[in-house]
Amino acid sequence: MAEPGSNLGVGYNSWIMNSNFFLSGVLFVISAVGFYSDMRGVIKRTVWRTLAALLLVLPGIGLINEGFFATDLPGFPPTTLHGVLHIIGFFVIFLDLIFAPIIIGILLWKTSFWRNYSIYSILTGLLLTPLSIVFLFYTTSHIPQISGFAERLLIGVTFLWYAVTHASRLVSSSSYPGLQKKTL
Known about the structure:
This protein is mainly alpha-helical. 73% of the residues lie in helices and 0% in strands.
């Protein structure tokens, strides 16, 4: 629990973690494309729907990046180009996932069907801000016990939000007419 998850991407079995980063990123990108398509009946303005989908794509791109560029050991601050690229990928993932829940929650607030999800989404975004600050503080302070726990909590909350977002979309597609596919 004290070791950052990215450290698993370095060493003899690093291919396992790096494959996990890459495949998770691909799945994030695919699900964002589905979100964009399915939300046509809910988020009417293309610019807002595109913004929401982009906010869901960026973490996927960041995860793909993490799969290719391993962290430096001991980790922070990075000392090599691939370490710097890894840190950039981290910030793309988690800074985006602070704003994505809030913005998507606000966009879906107007639709009564999505109101409960909207509240959950906005609260998640607000929770991720202090979690990110705690994680970054303890990572830069080199206190691995708290840093590792904060990282797991940060990852858990963000990935849970992502799962709830897409599970809600899938469940609602059969019960909400605005999400049903049009047939020719």
